[in-house]
Specification:
4-stranded antiparallel sheet; two-stranded antiparallel sheet; Alpha-Beta Plaits; alpha+beta; 8% strand; globular; single chain
Length: 306
């Protein structure tokens, strides 16, 4: 027995598929056809597409085809860099510095506050004291690169990002204990085992079923990698993350083969990977924070793609 990963909503499916584009755009027919594989009604896909366009998460080109919009690109860049996650890490020891963010006051339920919170979570920050979040300074590019990424993901300019060091002993001990190493390793192992079991099943499945399986199972693995805080060995052993990435790389090749004919039939030019590889489910919360609430109404608003 194995537990099935969650079935995507029309909204997340659209974002995931558009994130696979290497260049160009995707026709609405491809999005509707993919939705049918997951049991999503055509009208549901079209309504979701219209709402994503209104939120600037998706945009339409001059030919009436669709691609990711400006509001989704920073999250997409983070999620689709999963293969390089370990390479982005550099050596760090407990006596080294921390990247810190002091959050500027904002209404708790405001969209900007929610986007800021999601950005900080996505990049592995945790609260040391109320209003002050930290993470080890162990990522390539240091504080400057993290500041740039945080701003792109929604951190306000009024929230300073800086290098912190020389904490007193109690604060240093608290900082070192902010992340749950056991939970992180459990998530990595669970994703690894799910990929291995699924890859063994793919060859015996009809193509359509294998497309759905690879999309959902690969998506859950990418969710795990993209949300990993990328902490140094001194806090969480890195080897299991490297093993998960290697397995996902092999799984991606199997998933890509199942999706190739479908993509080609719609004239879609993918990246070097299949939808399972680039699924944006890992960042769905950040994208939701940037857009109006999603619902499941089936009545189409004005401007629904035909």
């Amino acid at each position: 027995m194995h537990s099935s990963p969650p079935t995507p909503t029309a909204r997340s499916l659209i974002l995931d598929l558009l994130s696979t584009l290497r260049r160009g755009s995707m026709p609405v027919g491809a999005l509707v056809g993919a939705g049918a594989l997951f049991g999503l009604a055509a009208n549901n896909v079209r309504v979701s597409l219209a709402r994503l366009c209104a939120a600037r998460l998706v945009e339409r080109d001059e030919r009436g085809r669709y691609r990711l919009g400006a509001a989704a690109r920073a999250v997409d860049a983070h999620v689709t860099a999963w293969r390089d996650a370990v390479q982005r890490m550099r050596p760090w020891q407990p006596g080294d510095g921390w990247v810190a963010v002091q959050r500027a006051p904002a209404p708790a339920r405001s969209r900007s506050a929610r986007r800021e919170e999601h950005a900080l979570q996505l990049l592995g920050f945790r609260a040391l004291v109320p209003g002050l979040l930290v993470r080890p300074d162990n990522l390539a590019g240091g504080v400057g690169a993290l500041r740039q990424n945080l701003r792109a993901l929604g951190l306000r300019d009024t929230s300073p990002v800086f290098l912190a060091a020389a904490f007193d002993a109690p604060q240093q001990q608290r900082a070192l204990s902010l992340w749950d190493a056991a939970a992180a390793q459990h998530a990595r192992r669970a994703a690894l085992e799910a990929l291995r079991r699924s890859r063994e099943r793919l060859d015996g499945m009809p193509v359509a079923q294998a497309m759905v399986e690879s999309f959902c199972t690969g998506g859950e693995a990418i969710r795990t990698i993209a949300r990993d805080p990328l902490l140094p060995d001194a806090l969480i052993a890195v080897a299991p993350l490297r093993e998960l990435i290697d397995e996902m790389d092999a799984y991606d090749r199997a998933g890509r083969a199942r999706w190739a004919d479908f993509m080609a039939s719609h004239g879609v030019h993918g990246r070097t990977s299949a939808p399972a590889d680039l699924r944006m489910g890992a960042a769905a919360a950040a994208l939701r924070a940037a857009a109006p609430p999603h619902d499941t109404h089936t009545s189409a608003p004005e401007g629904v793609p035909q």
